[in-house]
Amino acid sequence: MSRPSTITRASSMPTTTSDSLFTTRRAHLEDLGLVNALHHACSLDSRYARYATPRRELKPSEFARLVHPAAGDIWITTLTDGPESTETAVALTHLLKTRTVGVYELAVLVGDPWQGQGLGARLTDQALAWAAENPNCRTVTAMFGASNRRALRILSRRNVTIPAANAGVIDVTLPLPERS
């Protein structure tokens, strides 16, 4: 499998990048159909691992809040099938501001067929690299269910100390790469 694209930083926003298999770009309101198609294609376990609920889609008002620049950043990773292709969403990455100044929360949803192949890990690394370049971001956190083996594996491979779960939920602070 080809490595997915790298999110790069150009002034205040990552640019669209792609390789032969994936394109990762900032999500826009017009992407709601792609995002909801990804949600519908994900198993109940995958959606529950991401949201701690079995939600099948995002409402237009919810997605509008997520893609608003004041919320932080949300990227969509798509697969391109060929010359006459249509976009198919394979992953969604959120790096959203929290109520605490300088603290952002990271969340990644990877479609079932693409899980276990390193895509979630690479998107996590890309989001953390972007966060390190964002002067407004001091800390990145992630919250997920204690049974989310894939999230635990991504973090343990990065030598992140996993705190004890509280009510079945792990809330962890992620180390940022060194700022350039």
Protein model, in words:
With 180 residues, the chain is α+β, with helices and mostly antiparallel strands. The protein has 5 helices and 9 strands, in the order E-E-E-E-H-H-H-E-E-E-H-E-H-E. The protein has helices spanning 32-41, 44-51, 60-67, 119-133, 149-156, and strands at 8-10, 13-15, 17-18, 22-26, 72-80, 87-97, 103-110, 139-145, 169-174. Strands 3-4-5-6-7-8-9 form a 7-stranded mixed beta sheet, sandwiched between helices. A two-stranded antiparallel sheet has the order 1-2. Strand 1 and strand 2 (13-15) form a beta hairpin. It is globular and about 40 Å long.
Low-pLDDT runs: 1-16
Number of helices: 5
Can you summarize the main beta sheet? 7 strands, mixed
As a whole number of angstroms, the C-alpha radius of gyration is 15 Å
Give the terminus-to-terminus CA distance.
30 Å
Write the layout of secondary structure elements.
Blueprint: E1 8-10, E2 13-15, E3 17-18, E4 22-26, H1 32-41, H2 44-51, H3 60-67, E5 72-80, E6 87-97, E7 103-110, H4 119-133, E8 139-145, H5 149-156, E9 169-174
Parallel strand pairs: 7-8
Antiparallel strand pairs: 1-2, 3-4, 4-5, 5-6, 6-7, 8-9
In short:
The protein is α+β, with helices and mostly antiparallel strands. The protein has helices spanning 32-41, 44-51, 60-67, 119-133, 149-156, and strands at residues 8-10, 13-15, 17-18, 22-26, 72-80, 87-97, 103-110, 139-145, 169-174.
